[in-house]
Specification:
This protein has a single domain, classed as Rossmann fold. Helices cover 42% and strands 17% of the residues. It is built from nine helices and seven strands.
Length: 264
């Protein structure tokens, strides 16, 4: 299968350095449209959709492969292979794509020279007393139950939670549209993998320098999660963005651009 069409891969510019953008759950590559213009003159930028998201090829969906984050990490590596990228890539991941990117970096450490992790959460479940991921198991199970019973209702409920106060109606609407346009069966598989994965034990295996961009007020990734990642990711830098919500690249893109520029 042609990976470039399977994952709806698009390449912007032809700069000597490569930025690879990976979207979050329920999202798609269009979410990066406010970030990519800032790096058009300096970087070759790659955007794509995971199988089951955006405009990817739905016939390529395999429920078993995509039931764990390693399946999505393989998508990411497949895209790099299809573009003949073997080294020097900076990955910019949002939300669950931070964990996916970490798995890819463990598998192929020579591929990435830097990671930019926006709103990461290696485990959404609370594990007291040492770890506060933000959710109790029954909260997440309830979210998936709502997804099963009323997919549109779930999408309209979750979108403003993810966008936060800074996102307002515009970002909430963009997220809701993205959620609603995703196939419910494929979204359910990705949701299960996203919310019930625990990648904390993988952090020690990551040796790629990382910038952790934490939102100051984020329902999906509390401040303590950013601190935890910074403590457990060797060579990481933690920067807290003064943002209310989980999607600074949509609600406060200039903050993300400035942070990326300074780090790169």
């Amino acid at each position: 299968m042609n990976i470039l069409s399977r994952n709806n891969v698009n390449v912007i510019g032809d700069g000597p350095k490569v930025l690879l953008y990976a979207h979050g759950f329920g999202c798609n590559q269009a979410m990066w449209s406010q970030i990519t213009p800032a790096f058009a003159a300096t970087h070759r930028q790659v955007v794509f959709d995971y199988v089951g998201s955006g405009r990817s090829d739905p016939s390529a969906f395999d429920a078993q492969r995509y039931s764990s984050l390693s399946g999505y990490a393989q998508d990411l590596l497949d895209v790099c292979d299809a573009l003949d990228l073997h080294t020097g890539v900076t990955l910019v991941g949002h939300s669950v794509s931070c964990s996916i990117g970490l798995l890819a970096a463990i598998q192929r450490p020579s591929l990435f020279n830097k990671l930019v992790l926006l709103g990461p959460n290696p485990c959404f479940l609370n594990a007291p007393p040492d770890y506060q991921g933000g959710f109790e198991r029954q909260d997440l199970e309830g979210l998936l139950d709502l997804m099963d019973q009323n997919y549109m209702g779930w999408a309209h409920y979750l979108a403003p939670v993810v966008s936060g106060e800074d996102g307002g109606e515009q970002v909430s609407g963009q997220l809701s549209d993205s959620f609603c346009s995703t196939d419910p069966v494929m979204a359910r598989v990705f949701a299960q993998a996203t919310f019930f994965s625990d990648n904390r034990s993988d952090l020690a295996q990551v040796h790629t320098p990382a910038l952790v961009l934490q939102h100051r007020h984020d329902t999906l990734a509390p401040l303590s999660v950013g601190t935890y990642l910074h403590q457990h990711l060797a060579g990481s830098t933690l920067q807290v963005l003064d943002v209310k919500g989980h999607c600074a690249h949509l609600s406060n893109p200039q903050l993300v651009i400035e942070a990326m520029r300074a780090y790169l």
